[in-house]
Structure formats: C-alpha cells, structure tokens
C-alpha cells in the first residue's frame, strides 16, 4: 500500500518536474534496518512561491491536504496530506536551501514497481536524523551505519559541523556517540 502511494506521488512529482527526495522512515527502510512506519515524508526542492504547483501535484497524486494549505505552509513549510484511498499520511516539506539543493542532487533512485523513486542518500539521511536527535532518529542512524559500510563520513562530519554552528547544538558529539555504538 505505501509503495503504491510512493509510486503515485513520485510519478506526479516527476511529471511536474519538481525535485524531490523521500526522507524519514521510508528512506531508513532503504538504507537501514526494516522498521514499522506508515508515514511518508518527502522534501520538495521548491520554495513557497510554488505552492500552487505543489497543490496541483497533490491533486494529481490522489492526496488530500489535511490543513488549510496557504496559512499552514506559509508558517511551517510543511503540507500534511493523506492518500484518499488508503489514508496513508504524506508530509511534503518545501525547502530551497543550499543544503537541500545539494542533497536533492545526491538522492538515489530506487525502483518501486515500474517507477523510479528518489530517496535521500544515506549520508544526508544520517545528517537529518542526527540533527533531529530523538531516540528513534539515533536508532535509525545506528542501523544505517551498520548496513552502509561505505559511507562518506567526512561529508557527514563537515555537514554536521556546518549545522552545529548554525543551530548551536552539539551535533558532532551526537554523531560520534551514535556512530561509535554501531
């Protein structure tokens, strides 16, 4: 059911020529250990000025917004939706930052059925999870590190160093503690 939703959403995003990558738990399933997750999180490489295009993709993919889009997305940069048929939650995150543009370029394509679906690269997923820092996120990091022996650890450290200065959080320490226990 979730793979069908992913295929449909990826097809609609590709048809709209909208850069995207699946992040969150669904991306962890690609790079780490299997776990139960019923939500789909997708970063879109667009800014708020393309909200009308995003809403057209939502309709084309058979999704329904769960909020009044304009004010909510303007405040949060997230458009929570649900698949009309299955009820699967799909959160679309609008982001046009330099980091996100680079991460979108590094995304990897995984074949689901007849559709190539773009997932965050393992290193970018690790960065996102370390920044979030919740226990579940750090468990995900450990599982990715265990399953991906050829990680670009230098890129992970440099990106976390950049975010650490911006967010004033001990991200490198969190990464060292988490990756060492894998």
Question: How would you sum up this structure, described in words?
Answer:
The chain has 9 helices and 7 strands; from the N terminus they run αβαβαβαββαββαααα. With 182 residues, it is α+β, with helices and mostly antiparallel strands. The protein folds into 2 domains: 1-120, 2-Layer Sandwich (Beta Polymerase, domain 2); 122-182, no CATH class. It is globular. Strand 6 (108-112) and strand 7 form a beta hairpin. 54% of the residues lie in helices and 19% in strands. Helix 6 (122-132) runs antiparallel to helix 7 (135-147). Strands 1-2-5-4-3 form a 5-stranded mixed beta sheet.
In short:
This protein has 182 residues and is of the alpha+beta class. It is 54% helix and 19% strand.
Task: List descriptors.
2 domains, five-stranded mixed β-sheet, alpha+beta, 9 helices, Beta Polymerase, domain 2, 182 residues
SSE arrangement:
Elements: H1 2-15, E1 20-23, H2 24-31, E2 39-44, H3 51-60, E3 63-65, H4 69-76, E4 78-83, E5 89-94, H5 98-106, E6 108-112, E7 115-119, H6 122-132, H7 135-147, H8 153-167, H9 171-180
Parallel strand pairs: 2-5
Antiparallel strand pairs: 1-2, 3-4, 4-5, 6-7
Helix pairs in contact: 2-6, 6-7, 6-8
């Amino acid at each position: 059911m979730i793979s069908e939703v992913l295929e449909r959403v990826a097809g609609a995003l590709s048809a709209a020529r909208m850069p995207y990558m699946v992040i969150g738990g669904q991306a962890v399933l690609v790079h780490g250990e299997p776990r139960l997750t019923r939500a789909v999180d997708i970063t879109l490489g667009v800014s708020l000025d393309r909200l009308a295009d995003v809403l057209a993709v939502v309709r084309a993919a058979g999704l329904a917004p769960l909020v009044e889009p304009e004010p909510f997305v303007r405040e949060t940069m997230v458009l929570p939706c649900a698949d009309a048929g299955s009820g699967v939650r799909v959160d679309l995150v609008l982001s046009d930052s330099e980091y996100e543009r680079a991460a979108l370029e590094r995304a990897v394509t995984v074949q689901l059925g007849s559709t190539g679906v773009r997932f965050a690269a393992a290193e970018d997923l690790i960065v996102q999870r370390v920044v979030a820092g919740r226990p579940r996120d750090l468990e995900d990091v450990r599982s990715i590190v265990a399953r991906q022996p050829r990680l670009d650890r230098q890129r992970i450290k440099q990106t976390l160093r950049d975010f650490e200065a911006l967010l004033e959080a001990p991200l490198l320490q969190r990464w060292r503690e988490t990756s060492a226990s894998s």
